[in-house]
Amino acid sequence: MDSITQAALGAAIGGVVLGRRLGRKAVLIGAVLGTLPDLDVVIDYGDAVANVTEHRGFSHSLFVLAGLATALALLSARFAPARDISLGRWWTFFGFCLLTHPLLDSLTTYGTQLWWPLDAPPVAYPIVFIIDPLYTLPLLVGIGIALVTGNGRRGPAWGLALASTYLMFAFGAKQLVEHRIEPILADRGLAEASSLVQPTPFNTLLWRVTVVNDDEHHELLVGLLDGDTPPLVETYRRGAELTAEALASERGQRLDWFAGPFLRYEARELDGGETLVATDLRLGFPGFYPFAFPLATREGDSWQEVDVSEQLVASSRGTREALSRLAGRIMAPEPALCTSDFVAGGWVLNTSAPC
């Protein structure tokens, strides 16, 4: 989630745990702890693929943060002026403020390396977008009340309860969407294909479904307010014929570990030469993928891995129009919103209705 949300979550938890004893201080310290894991963004690994795939790594590890919480609790119990706070209460304060950060991040599409240093892929079960005002606002209001009144517990407790209720709603919405698309995917022989269900920007009423099957990837938009209207199914090429060449590079293997099957490969003309580019299909929206990386350049009949990979600048063509049409699509399935409207025609294979 965004830094404001993480700070607000940490502040609310700090207020709930120690607000009655420390007042505003619990809220402010909790806000700092809530943003602490994201300081890894200042680390430059010297390569775009490394920067993206290492983010939410060691600093988001449950093992690392639990150890840090233990150290901070021991120090506070020994040296803090508030001598009446037990070691267990100190650990609850530090542990909950720190550990909820990666756990919340794991509820977004990007995923989080909860089990670092174990060689496990990032954990992701997306039920909220990386910025969701309906989750953040209750937290901000609650901590605002705490800071104004000096009562460090009551406002944060209400804010945390409302925000948690919203997460429960989002979880239920995802389950409903997954149930709704099951027969549609089964009819198309995609029941066993890799699929990703995630909310569209800033809401949990309209969901994007991405399904990958060999050389094809399929896109659906499913709204909670769609009623009996079936979603459009749009099919795109994925460039799977370049998979072997992509995985021959170390960066290609790293991206495959990071994004699994949700990658598109293409040969682009960049800097006067043919370049093999990998694009993460999970993040963004068809036509607006922010994470694309050159992996290799063609030299004669072979591909040579690039020395340093840079993140390619994503096209902003029609971004405002796309967001506006997405907002309209939330309330009604008609008129249809076709993701192919924003995608270069060469990638589109089929749609289930005229677009």
Automatic annotation (TrEMBL):
Alphabetized UniProt keyword annotations: Hydrolase, Membrane, Transmembrane, Transmembrane helix
Ranges that cross the membrane: 57-75, 87-104, 124-148, 155-173
User: Is Acyltransferase one of the keywords UniProt gives this record?
Assistant: no
Which one of the record's GO molecular function terms can you name? hydrolase activity
- At the top level of its lineage, which domain of life is listed? Bacteria
Keyword Membrane attached: yes
- Name the record gives this protein: Metal-dependent hydrolase
> Organism source for this protein?
Halomonas tibetensis
